[in-house]
From TrEMBL:
It is an enzyme of class 3 (hydrolase). Its EC number is 3.4.19.1. It comes from Glycine soja. Pfam families: Peptidase_S9 (PF00326). Keywords: Aminopeptidase, Hydrolase, Protease. InterPro entries: AB_hydrolase_fold, Peptidase_S9_cat, Xaa-Pro_dipeptidyl-ppase/CocE. Residues 457-656 form the Peptidase S9 prolyl oligopeptidase catalytic domain. This is Dipeptidyl aminopeptidase BIII isoform A. One of its GO terms (biological process) is proteolysis.
Length: 674
C-alpha cells in the first residue's frame, strides 16, 4: 500500500508511525452475536456495530455473490438481551420468522424476514421498562408457543428468579408467560426434540458457576403441553463433579451433550434413553466447548454424508489451537478437516455446508462457508461470508504473528501459556542496542481464554514498536478442568504470579526491556492488573479497565450470575480483605490509568473511584476516565478509540522514553501534571 516505503527508518520502539489507526480499531471492528439459517437456507447473523453505539443488528446474507447484505432489524430496534448481564442467545429463526430480544425494553418480538416493511410485533408484556429479559429461546410448533429462559428483575435486580417459560403465540392479547421449569438458580439450553414430546435443559445453583457443576435434565411433555415427568441425565452423582452443557437432539431423537466427567475435558457424549445410561461419543484430551458466559453457544452440529447419517461436525481446542472435525458416531472415529482457521467458536449447519465462526493469526473474526465432499472427509470450498474487520487485510505487511509460548510458573514443574507478538512494521526498525517495551494483557473472566488471532487492537501496539503478550494464566479455559481449577481459592495469587513469570521469562529471553514493562486488563483482568501493582514490583505501569479493587464490595454489589463466583475464587472474608488491592494502597508505586463505564452492573463505578482516590492520595501518578452510557465493556466507537489512545500516550509519557507518532492530546495525570 502507499504508506509503505522502500526506506527503513531507525527510530525508538514505541515511536513508529503506523497506518493502523485508532479509528480502524474502534470503528471498523464489529462483534458477532451468533449465526443461524432461515427456512430457505440463507445465513443470518447478528453483528454489534461500534459506530452505532454497539447496536445489535440482524443481517441477511446477499441473494447473489457480490450482492449487498440486507439489514433485517429496523433502525429503532437493537437485538440484545441482558439476561445474566452478559446476554447471548438473543435471537432465533424458524422458517420465515425471526424471534428476537429488543435491547431498549428487553421484550421479545417476532418479525417476518420476507416482509421487512412490516414492523416487528411484541410477544411479551410491557412492564414499563427493561425489567424482564429473555434468552436462548426456541419455537415449539406443536403447541404454537415460544420456549425461553427468562430473568425477571421486577422484584429484585440483585437476585432475580430465572425460569424456563412458554410464551403463547396464537393469542391476540399479550399474556403473562407460563413458567414450565423453576426452582434452580439458573437455566440454559432449553431444547425440544423434533416432535416436541421431550425437552432438555441445563440447570445449576449457587455457589457453582456453570463450568464448575451443572445438571442435565429431560422433561416429558404431556398432550396439554405440561412437563409431567423429569429425569436427571448427568450431574447428579455426588461422587463425581461434572459440568454438562450444550444438549442437543438429533433428528432421530437421540440426546447428545458435552461434559467433562471422564477425563476432565469437555467431550461429546450421548444418552441411551432406554437404559438411562450416558456413553462417550469420542474421548480426547481437548475441549469441545467453551465456558458458559453467554447463552447461545453452538459448538457442534449433526451432518449427513452420502454413506451414513450419524456424523457430527464439531470444533475442539487443544494446546492453544482450534480444530474442525467430523465424528463418526457409530465408529467412534474423528476426522480432522484441513481448515485455515486456528480459532473456532460456533458452527451452524447450512444446506450441504457449514457456517463456521473462525479466525487465525492472519484472519480476523469471520464467518466462513465450508463445503465438504460427499463423504464429509475433507473441505472442498472455503468462502468468507462475513468479517469483523474487512479492511484489516490491507495491513498484512504490518501484521505481527503470535508465537505460542509455554513458560515456567513459580510452581516447580508447572507451566502456563501465552501468545507473544513482537514489534512489526516494515517501515521502521530500532537500534540494535534497544529492546522493546512490553504490554502484557491479562484476560477477563477470569475463567476465560485468550486466543492468538488477528486483532487490530493488538496490532495497533505492535505496529508502533511495542511487544505484546497475551497470557492464559492458570485458571484459564482451553486446557481442561485441572488447569481451570488452579485458580480456585487462588485468585490474586496464581494469576498474579503467572503474569509476572511470563514477563520475567520474556526479559530473560532477551525479547523485551525489563525497565519498560506495562500490564493492562479489563474486568477480572483489571483486578489482576491492580493486584500485580499492589503485591509485586515486576511492572512499571498499568491500565485497569472496569477492574476490581475491592473484592468484598464486588461480592455485595455485583449481579446474581457472579454473586458467589468470587467466593470460589478467593475464599473467606479474611482472604477477600488480604487480596483486595484497595487495602494495600501503600504498596502502589507505579503509575496507573483507570477506565470505567458508569452504567456497569458487573463491576460498579465505586470500584474505580475508590482505587483512583486512594492512589491519588498516596501521591502516585494516576488518571481516571469515566464514560456515560457504557456498561461492562465499552461498545461505543468513540470510547474504544479514546481508551486505546490514552493508554498508549499514558505509558509513553510515564515510562516509555519516547514520543508517540500520533497526534494525541493527553488527559491530565494527577501527581504528574500538577
Amino acid at each position: 500500500m502507499a504508506f509503505s516505503t522502500a526506506t527503513v527508518t531507525t527510530a525508538p520502539y514505541g515511536s513508529w508511525k503506523s497506518p493502523i489507526t485508532s479509528d480502524d480499531v474502534s470503528g471498523a471492528t464489529k462483534d458477532l452475536g451468533g449465526t443461524t439459517i432461515d427456512g430457505r437456507g440463507r445465513l443470518i447473523w447478528l453483528e454489534f456495530r461500534p459506530t452505532e453505539s454497539g447496536r445489535g443488528v440482524l443481517v441477511l446474507e446477499p441473494e447473489n455473490n457480490g450482492g449487498e447484505a440486507v439489514d433485517i432489524t429496523p433502525k429503532e430496534f437493537g437485538v440484545r438481551t441482558l439476561a445474566q448481564e452478559y446476554g447471548g442467545g438473543a435471537f432465533t429463526v424458524s422458517g420465515d420468522v425471526v424471534f428476537f430480544a429488543n435491547y431498549n425494553d428487553q421484550r421479545l418480538y417476532k418479525q417476518s424476514i420476507s416482509s421487512l416493511d412490516v414492523p416487528p410485533v411484541p410477544l411479551t408484556p410491557d412492564y414499563g421498562g427493561p425489567l424482564v429479559s429473555y434468552a436462548d429461546g426456541r419455537l415449539d410448533a406443536r403447541f404454537n408457543r415460544f420456549i425461553s429462559v427468562r430473568e425477571d428483575r421486577r422484584e429484585s435486580s440483585l437476585n432475580p428468579p430465572t425460569t424456563i417459560v412458554s410464551i403463547a403465540l396464537g393469542s391476540k392479547d399479550l399474556q403473562e408467560p407460563e413458567v414450565l421449569v423453576s426452582g434452580s438458580d439458573f437455566y440454559a439450553f432449553p431444547r425440544l426434540d423434533s416432535k416436541s414430546e421431550r425437552i432438555t435443559w441445563i440447570q445449576w445453583n449457587h455457589p457453582s458457576m456453570p463450568w464448575d457443576k451443572t445438571e442435565l435434565w429431560v422433561g416429558y411433555i404431556s398432550e396439554n403441553g405440561e412437563i409431567y415427568k423429569r429425569v436427571c441425565i448427568a450431574g447428579n452423582d455426588p461422587s463425581r463433579v461434572e459440568s454438562p452443557t450444550e444438549p442437543k437432539w438429533s433428528l432421530d431423537g437421540e440426546l447428545f451433550f458435552v461434559t467433562d466427567k471422564e477425563n476432565g475435558f469437555w467431550n461429546i457424549h450421548k444418552w441411551i434413553e432406554f437404559e438411562n445410561k450416558v456413553v462417550s461419543v469420542y474421548s480426547l484430551e481437548a475441549e469441545f466447548t467453551r465456558p458458559l458466559w453467554t447463552y447461545g453457544m453452538n459448538s457442534y452440529e449433526f451432518v449427513e454424508s452420502s454413506k451414513q447419517k450419524n456424523l457430527i461436525a464439531c470444533s475442539y481446542r487443544q494446546h492453544g489451537k482450534s480444530y474442525l472435525g467430523i465424528i463418526d458416531v457409530q465408529g467412534s472415529k474423528l476426522t480432522v478437516i484441513d481448515f485455515p482457521c486456528t480459532d473456532i467458536n460456533n458452527i451452524t449447519s447450512g444446506n450441504d455446508c457449514l457456517y463456521v465462526e473462525g479466525a487465525s493469526e492472519v484472519l480476523p473474526s469471520s464467518v466462513a462457508k465450508v463445503t465438504f465432499d460427499d463423504d464429509k472427509s475433507k473441505a472442498v470450498d472455503f468462502n468468507i461470508i462475513w468479517s469483523s474487520s474487512p479492511d484489516s487485510l490491507k495491513y498484512s505487511s504490518y501484521i505481527s504473528k503470535p508465537e505460542f509460548i509455554e513458560f515456567p510458573t513459580e510452581v516447580p514443574g508447572q507451566n502456563a501459556y501465552a501468545y507473544f507478538y513482537p514489534p512489526s512494521n516494515p517501515d521502521f526498525q530500532a537500534s540494535k542496542e534497544e529492546k522493546p517495551p512490553l504490554l502484557l494483557k491479562s484476560h477477563g473472566g477470569p475463567t476465560q481464554e485468550t486466543r492468538g488471532i488477528l486483532n487490530l487492537s493488538v496490532q495497533y501496539w505492535t505496529s508502533r514498536g511495542w511487544a505484546v503478550v497475551d497470557v492464559n494464566y492458570g485458571g484459564s479455559t482451553g486446557y481442561g478442568r485441572v488447569y481451570r481449577e488452579r485458580l480456585l481459592r487462588q485468585w490474586g495469587i496464581v494469576d498474579v504470579n503467572d503474569c509476572c513469570s511470563c514477563a520475567t521469562y520474556l526479559v530473560d529471553s532477551g525479547k523485551v526491556d525489563k525497565e519498560r514493562l506495562c500490564i493492562m486488563g479489563g474486568s477480572a483482568g483489571g483486578y489482576t492488573t491492580l493486584a500485580v501493582l499492589a503485591f509485586r514490583d515486576t511492572f512499571q505501569a498499568g491500565a485497569s479497565l472496569y477492574g476490581i479493587a475491592d473484592l468484598n464490595l464486588l461480592r455485595a454489589e455485583t449481579h446474581k450470575f457472579e454473586s458467589h463466583y468470587v467466593e470460589n475464587l478467593v475464599g473467606d472474608d479474611k482472604d477477600m480483605y488480604e487480596r483486595s488491592p484497595i487495602n494495600h494502597v501503600d504498596n502502589f508505586s507505579c503509575p496507573i490509568i483507570i477506565f470505567q463505564g458508569l452504567e456497569d452492573k458487573v463491576v460498579p463505578p465505586d470500584q474505580a473511584r475508590k482505587i483512583y482516590q486512594a492512589v491519588k492520595e498516596k501521591g502516585v501518578p494516576v488518571a481516571l476516565v469515566e464514560y456515560e452510557g457504557e456498561q461492562h465493556g465499552f461498545r461505543k466507537a468513540e470510547n474504544i478509540k479514546f481508551t486505546l489512545e490514552q493508554e498508549m500516550v499514558f505509558f509513553a509519557r510515564l515510562i516509555g522514553h519516547f514520543d508517540v507518532a500520533d497526534d494525541i492530546t493527553p488527559i491530565k495525570i494527577d501527581n504528574f501534571d500538577d
